Amino acid sequence: MKPSTAALIVAAGSGSRAARADALPKQYRPIGGLPVLARTVAAFLDHPAIDAVVVAISPEHADLYAESVTRFAGDARLLPPVPGGATRQISVRRGLEALTALAPDRVLVHDAARPFVSAGVIDRTLAGLDTADGVLAAVAVVDTLKRVDENGRIVETVSRERAHAAQTPQGFRWVALRDAHARAAAEGRDDFTDDAAVAEWAGLEVRVVEGDPANVKLTTNDDFAAAEARMSLDLYARLPDVRVGTGYDVHAFAPGDHVTLCGVDIPHVARLDGHSDADVALHALTDAILGALGDGDIGAHFPPSDMTWRGADSVIFLKDALARLEKRGGMLAHADVTIISEAPKVGPHREAMRQRLSEICGVTIDRIGVKATTNEKLGFVGRREGIAVIATATIRLPA
Fold this sequence. Notes:
Layout: E1 5-11, E2 30-31, E3 34-35, H1 36-45, E4 52-57, H2 62-68, E5 82-83, H3 88-98, E6 106-111, H4 119-128, E7 134-140, E8 145-148, E9 154-158, E10 164-173, H5 174-186, H6 195-201, E11 206-210, H7 221-238, E12 241-255, E13 258-261, E14 264-267, E15 270-272, H8 280-293, H9 298-301, H10 315-327, E16 331-340, H11 350-361, E17 368-373, H12 379-382, E18 386-397
Parallel strand pairs: 1-4, 1-6, 4-5, 7-11, 16-17
Antiparallel strand pairs: 2-3, 6-10, 7-10, 8-9, 12-15, 12-18, 13-14, 16-18
Helix pairs in contact: 3-5, 5-6, 8-10
């Protein structure tokens, strides 16, 4: 019978060394478009040997936690979060106690800020428990080690022979680790920096298995910058099929007091006439994405003869195209919208349009372009009878 295994993810810290102006704790900061914690939880839920995952969080972060794990809704293996404590040791102890009803054979304790843990590291940690009370993933130290005093002066060169840098996960028999933590708490020992140290103090045999240099702990802002770059490179490598689509749309003016462009309402002496809200910019961009996908056009998916879409918010159309792109495993790499109009003036609203498109498309604002030009008083645009838009979308798809 396969032994049951739970993963305990420690996410109760404040992450002060990676603090930003918005004071978002590091485990909830996004990398590659997803919170760090979401990527860490996914690494364990995706592993076939993991039967349950519980996360120890700060009670103050309950809303952040809930938002981070919405994508796992319905997965019964993700247990309710556990209120953590003032120290890592307290958080782990509470997490271990929360697993009492499940009573797993094995538990893996992992730092929330290590989102790049691989299935191989998890495999090796679990395999090590066949011959030891505890196992930790670690990498051999290759740099010369120096001990320094408070003034930065070197006081000793430390031998690196057989020295290893500890990582997580750290695996144990659940009962043994639970009891070791309970004993440490009872004796007032709260100075342990990881669970292997608690286990060693309690007399358990703990061994090392091969870790992974890529299994880094995100601690500083530089760590996050490197992680973001890594995620971008990995993403682009997985999506080598680059395609460009174009869209064009035009709507005439009708009596009204504003026009809607890129999801932004702009005061004007007229409105745009159309079956939906006539956001000509969103219509063109929707067609550009559909064109890059080779998936028809906006009229094919939302025919104007269908009264369902009478007066509809055009954001619905753009999000549908983006959902089709996501279903194909792709991403929007860049969107560029050119508005051709004599009036109203687009310039004062350009940044609001870019921001709105960034929100709808789920991309950073530097991937959104909005430009405007007149038609030099030529044609229907020059006569101020309507607005035309040309849009270009660059997408990336798996090969």
